[in-house]
Amino acid sequence: MRSLLHPFFLSCLLLFCLNQGLEQAQVYIWPLHTHLDDLLCLPITLQLVLVVQRAYFRNPAMVLPRWQVVFAWAAFSVCFELLLPLYKPLYTADALDVAAYAFGGLGFAAILNKPLRPRPQALR
User: Fold this and answer.
1) pTM to 2 decimal places
2) Which residues lie below 8 Å from residue 44, measured CB to CB, with a gap of 6+?
3) Residue 80 CA, distance from chain mean position
4) What does the pLDDT look like over 70-120, one tens digit per residue?
5) Whole-number Å distance between alpha carbons of 117 and 107
6) Which of 44, 49, 57, 100 has the largest count of CB atoms under 10 Å?
7) DSSP code per residue over 64-108
8) How do residues 11-37 score in pLDDT, each as one tens digit?
9) Helices 7-24 and 37-57 sit at what angle, rounded to 10 degrees?
10) Cα separations in angstroms, 124 against 117, 119, 121
11) 50, 112 in Cβ contact below 8 A?
């Protein structure tokens, strides 16, 4: 669970919530409104996936392999920028969103996808 307290993850989560709050208040600031959620999507999603896998396998040193990060980027890009706009005219495909997913994935890989250090033992 220490992974959920990482400052980068908490910053992403806070920025996402603030952006959603602005949108709920009908305050739209470009480029935040159009690309910030896409940028934050993979760091938040992949960190949650990593926390679940670490808990399931009871391995705090576990990290996601690069192929899983690339797969997540490709899956989000195809689903939300290719398929969803085909079936829902409300949504539009945007190459900058694909780039935002990529930068978010790179941020996750560089900052969050690290083994947890063992906790120091308490002195007896």
Assistant:
1) 0.91
2) 9, 12, 13, 16
3) 14
4) 999 999 999 999 999 999 989 999 999 999 999 999 999 999 999 998 777
5) 20
6) 100
7) --HHHHHHHHHHHHHIIIIIHHHH-TTS---HHHHHHHHHHHHHI
8) 999 999 999 999 999 998 888 889 999
9) 130
10) 21, 15, 9
11) yes
Q: Which of 35, 62, 32 is nearest to 46 (CA)?
A: 62
Q: Which residue has the tokens 């935002």?
A: 100
Host H or E run for residue 4: none
Polymer length of the chain: 124
DSSP state of 31: T
pLDDT above 60 (res 123): no
Place of tokens 């896998």: 53
Please, what is the angle between helix 66-78 and helix 37-57, to 10°? 140
Residue 19: both structure tokens together: 């952006």
3-state secondary structure of 12: helix
Q: What is the DSSP letter of 58?
A: T
